[in-house]
Amino acid sequence: MPMNLTALKGTVQGYFDRAFVEVAQTDYETPLANSELGYQAKLAPNTGTFVQFRVIGELPLDTQANSDSPKTYTDEQEPSAAMTLSDEVFQASIEEIAGYVSLRARLIEQDPIDILPTVKKRFVKWARRMIHTLANDRMVIPMGAPVTNLSNTYIEAPLPFRSIYAGGKAAFSGMQAEDFISLPDILRAVALLRNANVPMIKDRYACVIDSAGIQQLALGDSRFGDRVEAFKDSKQRVLSAGDTIDYAGVLFKVQSDPYRCHLPGAGGELRVRKNAGKVRVCHIFGENAWGYLDLGEAGSKQRQLLAPNFKVQDITVTGNHITCALRFPVQCLVMRRDYGLNLAYVSAFDEVPGDLPDEDAE
Q: What's the CA gap between 313 and 321, in Å, rounded?
């Protein structure tokens, strides 16, 4: 009996529509977006003027030779060239709000029998990661488009945090491969915020930093290293995204995906995210520095209005490999740019497995 592909695609799309409404709000919490360190609020009905969004474009999908079928990779393979997402900025009134971030071409290779529950789990994880990445980028990259209020005059969109540099460098152009982060760099940022009377979060300033930065701080400060080891002993596991360490009057929160760019000598620029490179950026901020407008409680009317749009690719093209395309609502903003700082730094622990030499090359 032939398979009714139209009915199948409709079934899958309906499944994900319902799954989004059912997912609890806490499942979207990340070390940056919607975490306990951010300022969370809901807009009252019919208030505000315009909201501005950064929209991520489509991810280019490698295809097989002489075919439109997506290219698959083994565990040891990677795409031949870096995949980059285009982006654009647009604005919408509160009444016409339609902030969708496009997430496309998530190739899922699973047994068709288990594909729906498996993709649902991965969908939540991927959505959380995209919320985190957007909020992270927003603190460094400026929004270029003006915001229009109801009187048709232009107002400035909030700019990202100002940046300081490890080792006392004055600008990004001076960054070198040995400009490792140290605790005095963090304390300098904290002093700048304190001198500006920036309100604290629970009597502390927060530092959202990646694992490579944590390891570098532990190497340079033995007491901080002891605090990290004490955390490991008490939790019986290593530090991971979302974990918090309180040290020297700073709440260090580990993030999963840092803002990264190449060194100046390699053509890098602080405000151009490469998602690779030696320069990393952590964020030190106080209360109300940034916020994330939530998606609403599970099953709420707000959640239903923000439901993503799904498209399921014809599996006659991909065989058992199903490609789900979705446009997912993400809303994040910096509320007070002077209430936080970026710190650009380098870590000796910035390598990933792909940086290591191949055995065959030895």
A: 9
